[in-house]
Design brief:
The structure is a homodimer of 232-residue chains.
Chain A: E1 16-18, H1 32-35, E2 38-43, E3 48-50, E4 58-64, E5 67-72, E6 78-84, E7 89-90, E8 101-104, E9 108-114, H2 115-124, H3 126-152, H4 155-169, E10 175-177, H5 182-189, H6 193-205, E11 209-213, E12 216-219, H7 222-229
Antiparallel strand pairs in A: 1-2, 2-9, 3-8, 4-7, 4-9, 5-6, 5-8, 10-12, 11-12
Helix pairs in contact in A: 2-3, 4-6, 4-7, 5-6
The structure holds a DNA duplex (30 and 30 nucleotides).
DNA sequence: CGTTATTTTGATATACTTCAATAGGGGTGG
DNA sequence: CCACCCCTATTGAAGTATATCAAAATAACG
């Protein structure tokens, strides 16, 4: 449920397994029917799920680990649209082609669904269609929030918002895993690695967070963090 | 279809009219059934359609004029998520409450649809549900593109992308209307009014665009504009 | 037409970037 | 098991794009 399985050795290799009836649906939802048409895929660190512009033949759901969505400019400037954590769906927004590349941040397993099957299912079982729409709407809502962040927040506010968002998504725990690098965070928040590092150091210095290690943060003063995040 | 009706006197006042069978559906689409349940609403310049946090009881479609979606931070910093032009839908992404405020940029008319009716229609007529999903997906795709812009593009590139985007949305005409103020553009692109003005002046100086007046641009060198926009 | 709001342009300030050097940390091979 | 090495993160110093402050020039409007 959390991204805590993120740090493992890099030994496994890609494999695909048909899953019959999947156990462990981590949320009680209407998507049980989906489990019957998904296959598990394992990804090594940095391995790509798909590339921007590829025909969108599959949807994915993260099971363990973390995936990042990337877009690049011609000269290499990179933006990470989102980090997908266990339970998150990837590619639901694709109309025909993927609009971003997707790469495993760490050792990751995902379930892969054929788009054709899901779409068929969706339009014969309205609940599923409804659920898909709901997920996409949530994504759009999150995107709007992030645009506000990218457009108008300071570096400190961006980092605070990011940490808070991660904490919320991973079950409101005090301890928050940061499976991604500082560069990844920077590319997600429109900052440089160095600015990310400085902002984290500042928060640590102010006693708002503690850094267990560079990939794990403890939120010491959630109120202060919320203030800095400028919850609008 | 274009935003060219944007400059009119500010004489009309809010009114709501039941429309029977609407003529002038500007695109041949499956949404004809919607026309039967919409009412026309007129808005004066700067008038609000709804506020962030309001319960989302209606969807809207712009008929003439332009609408902006706004989000504010506690200290007044503003972000404009999107400008909605004739044909664009507003509020489809709302789950229960609106996630942004919507205000008329200029004298504007919109069609208002009751969410309940549309949702009912959507789940009994799959084509409509499908179309809604498609519109929301497009919105998400546009949002991702804008995040890349906000995260990684320079001021010049942002302005170029913005102009190009407007040109494409309003029918690829050479002449592009800018119904919004420089401040609006700045709040949309994560810049200040002054930077927007300077970037436009620069493009003009370089012969890429001409400024007919402060609210109307002519694209003189589309290739150059596309280069500056860094079409990834 | 005078009056006010918007835009343009200029001068200075600053948050963040860039460049550079140091310090951890984790894995590998000796 | 330790030492070395590479990769990532941290910290520092200098540079730059954009913001801020300020004033002039247009355009909108009554």
């Amino acid at each position: 449920m959390s991204a805590s399985l993120a740090f493992q050795t890099e030994t496994s290799h890609r494999r695909t397994v048909q899953v019959g009836a999947t156990r462990k649906t981590d949320r009680p939802d209407e998507l049980a029917a989906l489990d019957r048409i998904g296959s598990v895929v394992s990804l090594r660190r940095e391995e790509s799920l798909f590339y921007e512009g590829d025909p969108a033949e599959y949807y994915f759901k993260v099971v363990t680990g973390a995936v990042r969505s990337c877009k690049l400019l011609a000269d290499g400037r990179r933006h990470i649209g989102d980090f997908f954590l266990p339970g998150d769906f990837i590619g639901l927004d694709a109309e025909t082609d993927y609009i971003f590349s997707a790469e495993a941040v760490t050792e990751t397993t995902v379930v892969r669904y054929s788009r054709r099957s899901v779409d068929a299912l969706a339009w014969q079982e309205p609940k599923i269609g409804r659920r898909l729409l709901s997920i996409v709407c949530h994504g759009l809502s999150a995107a709007q929030e992030r645009m506000l962040l990218l457009s108008r927040k300071t570096a400190d506010e961006r980092i605070a918002s990011f940490l808070l968002g991660l904490a919320i998504r991973t079950g409101h725990a005090e301890r928050v895993a940061l499976p991604m690098t500082r560069t990844d965070i920077g590319d997600h928040l429109g900052l440089t690695m160095e600015t990310v590092s400085r902002a984290l150091s500042q928060l640590k210095h102010d006693g708002v967070i503690a850094l267990v290690n560079s990939h794990e943060v403890v939120i010491r003063d959630r109120d202060a963090l919320e203030d800095k995040a400028e919850a609008a």
